[in-house]
């Protein structure tokens, strides 16, 4: 089963076709297909156990699908671990953000992908601290993210700032697709709007964003499209203009699409 | 705006603010301030303390456990502990001595001793990182294991008659500075560079701070842990070789208690035993504080029982200061 809406001339970055993932006898994702277009925010919604996390983890490389295939920019992708996904431009922002609280912002942005010195010692792991520092400053400036002193431990940042640092890390490494797991669940109103503002900027720069949430109210404002799952099956996909919050809630609860 | 700044705008608050920042400065730099005060006080009370000879003596006394403490610093930064270091010190000294006694050249003998240290470190690292055993328990096991092994290969006896040029490593001077001190300072310098300028050092901090996040960022957590225990084993072996050279013999029973001295130096130097935080420079200061106190008490003729009590008090104060600082920040 293909996703119901047509291509309507938009560029498809990610195409997941007929994905099935089983855990023992339980079918967590049952023959679900997903299209993700350039510059859109797709909200993947459903109750706990709907399969949305599992589906996304297949894309981010945490799980390998039992059936189905993934295409990125039209080419078949082989994603077997998170590093594979990253190399294809798919970055995941985990709910706990994967920030190291005891380190400063540049260390966190470059963690695991440090810029090396171009001297001989670079191949032994000598870092280019100055470039990392400067690039981190430029990156945060570019997106208008204010964090005070960049060399503060991340521990001292607010929840929203931490979220913004985690997202900008993904952007720095040329993400085409950013997956976010409940991005604003822990944030207040002001910080949520700051994160939304950032997501809108990313959309305009052509990045596709896949947001998971079990709370439709949390993502309704930011999403362009909704994809509803229930017990591992696709319930339906709705463009924001052709639906409203009540219809989505009905779909989540009843598991039926009108 | 999302920034949170504490502001003390009232005039009464300004004094409080000044006091607070002074207090915080003191807490931030407490170890170096304590060392300077300590040297000043002891130097004032005991004139013979501040002679060049005595200062070099202090450095020489701390050099061997000081080398071990650099390895311990990296282990502690990853959130681990290594109490097998004392046994590695004895093993490497005995290996070097036995090798030289059997006619192997000095450089090769030293390399064999260092390889023995790396070997024990790898064993520790494999058990801890890949076997998922608690570091304390794993290294407690290897501590006994290696001590027993060392006693067996040395047949329970010290190995004497080492070549003079080897003994020079422990007793010689270079431009008036004892060679063990030069070796120790070089190791501190390398350790400092490794921690602050190389990805390895940054990964140890990441692993100690948040192992799961580090893994998600692509850090090979297990490999970093393995490398860290190997480094600690290597540096313990360096200390063992220097000690054997200084004693002029490979002795299977040396090094007991070195793990505690090394941990004490790291903790006094502001490294957190919960991991993720630490500096090699801090450990150097910590080792020197312990050395100065012990030297001063010796000059005063205070019995060694009291020295142990005072070392204990210093450790407790250091840990309390650390807790206080974390509470304030």
Commentary on this structure:
The complex is a heterodimer of chains A (258) and B (329). Chain A is α/β, with parallel strands linked by helices. Chain A folds into two domains: 1-89 and 175-258, P-loop containing nucleotide triphosphate hydrolases (Rossmann fold), CATH 3.40.50.300; 103-174, no CATH class. In chain A, 30% of the residues lie in helices and 26% in strands. Chain A is built from eight helices and ten strands. In chain A, the strands form two sheets. Chain A has a six-stranded mixed beta sheet with strand order 6-7-8-3-9-10, sandwiched between helices. The longest helix of chain A has 16 residues, at 189-204. Mean pLDDT of chain A is 90; it is low at 1-6. Chain B is mainly α and 329 residues long. Chain B has a single domain (49-328), classed as ABC transporter involved in vitamin B12 uptake, BtuC. Chain B contains 14 helices and two strands; from the N terminus they run αααααααββααααααα. Chain B has helices at residues 11-28, 30-45, 52-77, 85-101, 106-130, 135-153, 164-171, 179-197, 199-209, 211-216, 221-247, 258-268, 280-300, 304-328; strands spanning 173-174, 177-178. In chain B, strands 1-2 form a two-stranded antiparallel sheet. In chain B, strand 1 and strand 2 (177-178) form a beta hairpin. In chain B, helix 3 crosses helix 13 (280-300) and helix 4 runs antiparallel to helix 5 (106-130). The longest helix of chain B has 27 residues, at 221-247. Chain B is globular and about 75 Å long. Mean pLDDT of chain B is 91; it is low at 1-10. At the A-B interface, helix 2 and helix 6 of A face helix 9 and helix 10 of B.
């Amino acid at each position: 089963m293909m996703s119901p809406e047509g291509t309507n001339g938009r560029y498809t970055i990610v195409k997941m076709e007929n994905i099935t993932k089983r855990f023992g006898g339980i079918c967590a994702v049952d023959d679900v297909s997903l299209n993700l277009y350039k510059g859109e925010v797709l909200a993947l919604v459903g109750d706990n156990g709907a399969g949305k996390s599992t589906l996304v983890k297949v894309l981010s490389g945490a799980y390998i699908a039992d059936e189905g295939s993934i295409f990125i920019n039209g080419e078949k992708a082989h994603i077997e671990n998170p590093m594979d996904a990253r190399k294809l431009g798919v970055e995941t922002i985990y709910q706990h953000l994967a920030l190291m609280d005891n380190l400063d912002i540049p260390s966190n942005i470059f963690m695991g992908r440090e810029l090396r010195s171009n001297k001989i010692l670079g191949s032994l792991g000598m870092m280019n601290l100055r470039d990392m520092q400067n690039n981190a400053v430029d990156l945060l400036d570019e997106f208008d993210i204010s964090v005070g002193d960049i060399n503060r431990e991340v521990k001292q940042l607010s929840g929203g700032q931490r979220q913004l640092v985690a997202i900008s890390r993904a952007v720095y490494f040329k993400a085409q697709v950013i997956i976010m797991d409940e991005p604003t669940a822990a944030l207040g109103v002001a910080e949520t709007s700051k994160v939304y503002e950032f997501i809108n900027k990313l959309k305009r720069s052509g990045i596709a964003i896949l947001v998971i949430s079990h709370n439709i109210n949390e993502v309704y404002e930011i999403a362009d499209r909704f994809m509803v799952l229930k017990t591992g099956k696709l319930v339906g996909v709705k463009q924001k203009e052709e639906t409203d919050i009540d219809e989505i809630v009905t779909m989540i609860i009843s598991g039926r699409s009108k | 705006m999302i920034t949170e700044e504490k502001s003390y705008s009232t005039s009464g608050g300004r004094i409080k603010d000044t006091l607070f920042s002074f207090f915080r400065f003191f807490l931030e730099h407490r170890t170096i301030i304590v060392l300077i005060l300590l040297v000043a006080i002891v130097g004032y009370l005991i004139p013979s303390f501040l002679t060049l000879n005595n200062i070099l003596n202090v450095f020489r006394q701390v050099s061997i456990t000081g080398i071990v403490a650099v390895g311990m610093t990296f282990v502690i930064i990853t959130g681990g502990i290594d109490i097998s270091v004392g046994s590695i010190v004895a093993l490497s000294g005995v290996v070097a001595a036995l090798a030289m006694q059997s006619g192997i050249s000095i450089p090769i003998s030293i390399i064999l001793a260092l390889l023995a240290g790396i070997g024990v470190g790898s064993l520790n690292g494999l058990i801890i990182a890949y076997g998922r055993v608690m570091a304390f328990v794993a290294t407690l096991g290897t501590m006994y294991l290696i001590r027993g092994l060392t006693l067996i290969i040395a047949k329970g006896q010290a190995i004497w008659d080492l070549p003079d040029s080897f003994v020079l490593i422990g007793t010689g001077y270079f431009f008036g500075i004892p060679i063990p001190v030069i070796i120790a300072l070089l190791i501190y310098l390398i350790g400092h560079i490794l921690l602050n300028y190389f990805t390895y050092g940054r990964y140890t901090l990441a692993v100690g701070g948040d192992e799961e996040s580090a893994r998600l960022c692509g850090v090979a957590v297990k490999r970093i842990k393995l490398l860290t225990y190997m480094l600690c084993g290597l540096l313990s072996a360096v200390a063992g070789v220097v000690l054997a050279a200084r004693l002029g013999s490979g002795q299977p029973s040396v090094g007991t208690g070195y793990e505690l001295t090394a941990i004490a130096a790291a903790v006094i130097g502001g490294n957190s035993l919960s991991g993720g935080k630490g500096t090699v420079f801090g450990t150097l200061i910590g080792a020197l504080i312990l050395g100065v106190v012990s030297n001063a008490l010796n000059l005063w003729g205070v019995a060694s029982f009291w020295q142990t009590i005072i070392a204990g008090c210093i450790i407790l104060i250091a840990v309390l200061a650390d807790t206080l600082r974390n509470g304030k920040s």
